[in-house]
Amino acid sequence: MxxxxxxxxxxxxxxxxxxxxxxxxxxxxxxxAVDGDLTFAEKETYLLAAEESGASAILVPASLNSTVxxxxxxxxxxxxxxxxxxHFFPEETFPAGVHPSASVAPTAEIHPTAHVGPHCxxxxxxxxxxxxxxxxxxxxxxxxxxxxxxxxxxxVTLYHRTVVGNRVRIHAGTTIGADGYGYVFDQGRHRxxxxxxxxxxxxxxxxxxxxxxxxxxxxxTVIGAGTKIDNLxxxxxxxxxxxxxxxxxxxxFAGSTHLGDYTVIASQSGIAGHLKLGRQSTVxxxxxxxxxxxxxxxxxxxxxxxxxxxxxxxxxxQKLPDLLHRMRDLEKQVKLLSKPEIEAV
Length: 345
Known about the structure:
Layout: E1 3-4, H1 5-12, E2 15-17, E3 23-24, E4 26-27, E5 37-40, H2 44-52, E6 57-61, E7 70-74, H3 77-88, E8 97-98, E9 103-104, E10 109-110, E11 115-116, E12 121-122, E13 127-128, E14 133-134, E15 139-140, E16 145-146, E17 151-152, E18 157-158, E19 163-164, E20 169-170, E21 175-178, E22 183-186, E23 189-192, E24 198-201, E25 206-207, E26 212-214, E27 220-223, E28 228-229, E29 234-235, E30 240-241, E31 246-247, E32 252-253, E33 258-259, E34 264-265, E35 270-271, E36 276-277, E37 282-283, E38 288-289, E39 298-300, E40 305-306, H4 307-338
């Protein structure tokens, strides 16, 4: 598709400096851009590379400008890029209807505009909202509810009574609503505690590939509106996430932990159970969280502690080898000083 620089500016609330009628046919990084492409530079340090690239125009924040190429000046270049990419690279569309190989229970309700792809299983009492898409090989358990504009990528499984809001995207291989890890020790063996809750996913959530979100033991496991969960994340039973949280790859949550709105958890962190992570709190990568986190606090390390405290520990650890050498030298000097003086003959 092609757009004039002026059309692009109107899409993102920007201004054109240069040739407003210039036609732009693609969007690329500075390293890959060719004639006709739009690229972007969000900082002064990137502007030179964009100017030297093959791109015809540059998307820049209002604080930057170029004397070499046409620029489209916007309040935030990265936000503008996110808005423009779907125009240059439209997502695949799926025709309304049910594929002949799909298995649909008689009591299921599928909106006429929805798409149910090959080899899907839609169980009794399932409801699928307008324009929602099951791409293929999806299993929707009894009583599952899908809102409007939901996208389930291949091989996503939703266990019974899962509730999914509007505009939710769940990527390939993810399982929602499996049994929580609940057992009680009884007469020498681990007796299963039946998990009878469900999972509730609110609007505008995106869940990455091969994630696992367990249903509640009695109530619901809840994912708040606007939250984004990366690949390979495990969420245990009765976890409740607030709105607009960011959960990076390979994070694991134990049961019944509550996350406040806008919480950020970096990759490969582990969160113990029954904790409260405050609003706008942040957990650094590879951290082990064992205690509650107050609102707005950043923690790091194993066990996780306030970031300044942990960084001081790391700096101290880096100094240990030198300190050990100095201590050995001091020990040698002390031994020499402690030897009795040899009497003169």
